[in-house]
């Protein structure tokens, strides 16, 4: 019964991501062909900057809601705590974005005319933080509603990109479309969450939950720091590729990651589906993790083989000949995503057992080494070097997760 529910919930998320994957090829093709490598690279830098700020400032409140919201009173308290964290994140993010763009905008290769559009897009990304409504939907196993909300992003992007082509296909117009997609998705999430669980705004507080649950802050910081590492390993890497290699190289790497890391989204979906089941049924965790890991290994092997056979054709079909240099990095990133897929259930097990800080440390050390080596790897291997950072980090991390979970079971 538990495995069936898990696979059903995962299926809803995969279905939404399947829709997003198809539509993402549409809007990616439009953006790359209309802007070209150099301007698309600048768009990628602006987009990535906003994602980094939103990612570093936001909290993984969905995990806190599932951990502390198993009864009605707990749900009210943890939801108020989560909303308070979201409000603090938005405020902090706006201040940080304004400061960085004002004083260090040129350091990230953004021309002066791009600073204000990038700031407004960052504000939209912050306002679109939706971890809290996501947690409410997952707590009630309403993955179907979350799937509908997730599909909003790609639908708005694909539609808006098509309109932008006929009106005025500039970097700014694509940023407006992407920002509108973020806001629309967040609005859909909150609307569906409110229909699922009444949201009591009077319970908004940063102090009530920690008084009732002494480990609340430790859990929230542990899960959020781990999520920040995910941002660093993906989004910050794109930005650093642009800083060290130029906007065009950042654009090529972004195309490679958009297509090659599709399996990473599957691993994230698996993590989000497995985690609630491990919280509810800790006694059957070992059996569940074993089954999911075997499924993940088979899926990863198939995807990497498809990348080897169809990779160059896919790049040519979606982005065009100017981005053919993204082929090998795409295959390497698909390999990294396959490794992460295997580790998704192991990570969920650690977090469900309250080992969020251990999970953070496990990811932090190899990522720090990888980012430090990036300038040399770019010099030696070009954009492939950035993909090798991700692959090496994933291998070391998942190996460490396997060792930790084995000790935890013992």
TrEMBL record:
Keyword hit for Cell membrane: yes
Localization, UniProt: Cell membrane
Residue ranges crossing the lipid bilayer per the database entry: 12-30, 42-66, 78-104, 116-136, 237-256, 295-316, 328-351, 360-378, 384-404
Pfam family, one: Polysacc_synt
Any Gene Ontology CC annotation: plasma membrane
Keyword vocabulary terms for this entry: Cell membrane, Membrane, Transmembrane, Transmembrane helix
Keyword Repressor part of the UniProt annotation: no
Membrane topology value: Multi-pass membrane protein
UniProt protein name: Oligosaccharide flippase family protein
Organism: Aurantiacibacter arachoides
